[in-house]
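Suppose you are handed a protein chain with no further information: no name, no annotation, nothing but its sequence. What can you learn? This example shows the usual starting point.
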Amino acid sequence: MSDSDADERTHPEDDGRRAAIPGFGPRRDGETPAAPSADRSPRTLRNVLFVLGGVAAVVIVVIIVLILVFFTVIDDAVKDVESKRNETAITTEQFQSVKIGAREETVRDEFGEPEEESTGDGAAGTTCLYYNEKDAGFVAGDRFMFCFVEGRLERKSRD
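A reasonable first move is to predict its three-dimensional structure. Written in structure tokens, the prediction is:
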């Protein structure tokens, strides 16, 4: 019996195919272990690219979520400001309906508290009331000013 016959008997599952693949099968005497082949480099590169692609996808999703949260917060803030602005707002028709000489108390009763009020504008006893334009939006729209001297409307303007 030859050495090859003995190898076949001790390793019946080794039909020669394993030995054809480097790194598999029993080592024969005097054989050195196979060096890492160049075949592993593309696989490793592919794995690295796969992981980097996954990380990039997660980063993109996080950025998109942050952008959506940012715009939702901004939108809510703008709606809140517009809502508060409309609390002290009047329409153009309401502004035009107030005639020179009208009493300050009448204007306050009809339109409610102004968005802003100033006193001492020019002559003593002068009070100016400022109302926003109703439903004009956050940055658009005019402000309506009514200035009273000693309780009577002296001038009005639309800014």
